[in-house]
Design goal:
About 10% of the residues lie in helices and about 30% in strands. The chain is mostly beta strands and about 110 residues long. The protein has one domain.
Length: about 110
């Protein structure tokens, strides 16, 4: 009997576009919608993307173009925050987490 093997690579047809900007995530989604005629929006079911490796949630925008059968995703790569330390002069520290560590310049 002949065994056939399916490859996942045959089904995952995607392009990754990195955007370098200092805009807030909602402003970037607005300008992408305006210029590229998209309809990116935050979904009620999944407003953020959870990364179990870093245990952080990243802003997530999505739009499915049913006419062209294309799904657009806009995900923030950089997540900034502050962590409360014990009482003192320097009681907080700023932390930065990246979804894709190799692309730290992509914001």
């Amino acid at each position: 009997m002949k065994v056939l093997k399916l490859s996942v690579d045959d089904f995952c047809d995607y392009h990754l576009i990195a955007v370098y900007t200092h805009l807030q995530d909602y402003k970037l989604a607005y300008y992408l919608n305006k210029v590229l005629k998209l309809h990116l929006c935050r979904e009620h079911e999944k407003p953020c993307l959870y990364c179990p490796h870093t245990q952080n949630t990243y802003p997530y925008y999505r739009w499915e173009d049913t006419l062209l059968r294309v799904t657009w995703h806009c995900i923030a790569n950089k997540l900034s925050g502050s962590q409360q330390l014990d009482e003192g002069f320097f009681s907080t520290t700023n932390t930065v987490h990246y979804l894709i560590d190799k692309l730290k310049k992509v914001d």
